[in-house]
Amino acid sequence: MSYEDFPWFKDAPIGKILNVEEPNPGHFYWPELDVDVGIETIEHPERFPLKAK
Questions:
Q1: Is the pLDDT of residue 18 over 90?
Q2: Nearest 5 degrees, angle CA 37-CA 29-CA 33?
Q3: Is residue 19 within 8 Å of residue 32, measured between CB atoms?
Q4: pTM to 2 decimal places
C-alpha cells in the first residue's frame, strides 16, 4: 500500500495504523483514522482513484 494511493496513513502514528478491524470479510476499517477500504481497492488501487484528499 503506497502513500500515494492511501495518503491517510502517511502521517498516522503506527498505533493507529495497527488498530484495524474487519467488520465484513474483505473490508477493513481503521476507527481512529475513520478510514475504510475494501480488499479490491488495496489490490487494485488504480481502479479506485481518490475522490478527496
A1: yes
A2: 100
A3: yes
A4: 0.80
